């Protein structure tokens, strides 16, 4: 099974850290750590070369060639997919996507 290189942009990493910080501020420290670990593990699952993903349903992101996938029905991962790498550009709440 081949793997592509996964690159996480700073904005996506900042959003993941902000969500984890919010969970931690609610007193759930272990849950915040598990959340961040699970997200990054999911990014590694995306790197499988046997899978290809669909363009975003939002017209502006689709026009730019971004691909989207949902994570736990609550978040959306926006990325660029090539043969050799996956570049994670955004990790945002699915409620923030309007079209």
How would you explain this protein's 3D organization?
- Strands 1-4-3-2 form a 4-stranded mixed beta sheet.
- Helices cover 39% and strands 25% of the residues.
- A hairpin with a 3-residue loop joins β2 and β3.
- It has 99 residues and is α+β, with helices and mostly antiparallel strands.
- α1 runs antiparallel to α2.
Summarize the structure.
This protein has 99 residues and is an alpha+beta fold. Helices cover 39% and strands 25% of the residues. The protein is globular and about 40 Å long.
Task: Compute the number of helices.
Answer: 3
The biggest sheet amounts to: 4 strands, mixed
Arithmetic mean of pLDDT: 92
**What Rg, in angstroms, do the CA atoms define?**
14 Å
Q: What layout of secondary structure does this protein have?
A:
Elements: E1 5-8, H1 10-25, H2 29-46, H3 59-63, E2 67-71, E3 75-81, E4 85-93
Parallel strand pairs: 1-4
Antiparallel strand pairs: 2-3, 3-4
Helix pairs in contact: 1-2
Question: What attributes does this structure have?
Answer:
alpha+beta; 3 helices; 25% strand; 99 residues; four-stranded mixed β-sheet
